[in-house]
Design goal:
The protein is an alpha/beta fold and about 270 residues long. The chain has ten helices and seven strands. Helices cover about 35% and strands about 20% of the residues.
Length: about 270
């Protein structure tokens, strides 16, 4: 299935989304106008526990997610985790608590205001095992095979080039690494009027792929055992089109046994 045609260029879409989320970073009001007081309630609905909400800075909750990608990923002490489109750092700070001081939680976001906000929060609350980087998820400023876990919360739908996003995710994951993402998908195709709406792009709607196409895109990047862990209807405020919130899990395959044996043999010889 071909990607839906757009009348706006990728650059135009990115610039609009970047500007809109820069405004959200400064006002803490989401695309649908939810206020700070509503963010905690929305997080509970998405699967975050009371313990989660009390263990992280309130200022990091921007009310922008559509699920809880860290809930099912089984983070381990000492792991390195990467959040694609980290925003105010909500999931990064939550992961930082779970992986402990020997682990590292990295957030990448293309909006400078979001990155600065997250860095300021990390400094204010004394987080030592977090790092926030300015960059695009289609071109991650991360080394090859350096990350144990990748999470993302309602961000990949904002990218005009999801193929590249998943290719980059695969590149930076270590062999055996895990991917857990919460995102929005459609049941069927969106109308052209919605696809070409800047407001709908910023509202996480216009960029949503049909569910099967979304899963195929992940598999084409090389991921194995791609599965939808959970899904539910998403009541978005930017369109009347049927949208679903899904949590998807996938893995980067371990190196082949012969490759491991060859590397072991080389080390022995040297």
């Amino acid at each position: 299935m071909k990607s839906p045609e757009r009348k706006h260029s990728e650059k135009e879409i990115k610039e609009f989304v970047r500007k809109r989320y820069g405004e959200i970073a400064q006002t803490r009001r989401s695309c649908c106008g939810s206020s700070t007081r509503e963010h905690a309630g929305a997080a509970r609905i998405m699967g975050y526990s009371e313990e989660d909400l009390t263990n992280i800075p309130e200022s990091s909750n921007m009310g922008l997610g559509c699920g809880n990608p860290t809930a099912l990923v089984s983070l381990k002490k000492g792991e390195t985790i990467l959040d694609l489109g980290s925003g105010g750092g909500f999931d990064v700070f939550l992961a930082a608590k779970k992986i402990g001081p020997k682990g590292k939680a990295i957030g990448v976001d293309m909006t400078e205001e979001m990155v600065q906000k997250a860095k300021a929060t990390a400094s204010r609350y004394g987080y030592k095992n977090v790092e926030f980087k300015l960059g695009e998820i289609e071109n991650l400023p991360i080394e090859d095979k350096s990350v144990d876990v990748i999470v993302s919360n309602c961000v990949i739908n904002l990218s005009p080039d999801k193929e590249k996003v998943f290719q980059e995710a695969y590149r930076v994951l270590k062999p055996g690494g895990r991917l857990m993402i919460s995102d929005l998908v459609t049941e069927g195709e969106l109308p052209e009027s919605v696809r070409n709406s800047f407001k709908a792009w910023a509202g996480c709607v216009a960029g949503a792929l049909e569910k099967n196409q979304y899963l195929k895109t992940i598999r084409r990047a090389g991921f194995k055992n791609v599965e939808v862990v959970s899904e539910k209807a998403f009541n978005n405020c930017c369109s009347q089109t049927q949208i679903k919130s899904v949590q998807v899990r996938a893995f980067k395959q371990m190196r082949r046994t012969k490759d491991i044996e060859k590397q072991t043999q080389t080390r022995i010889q040297h």
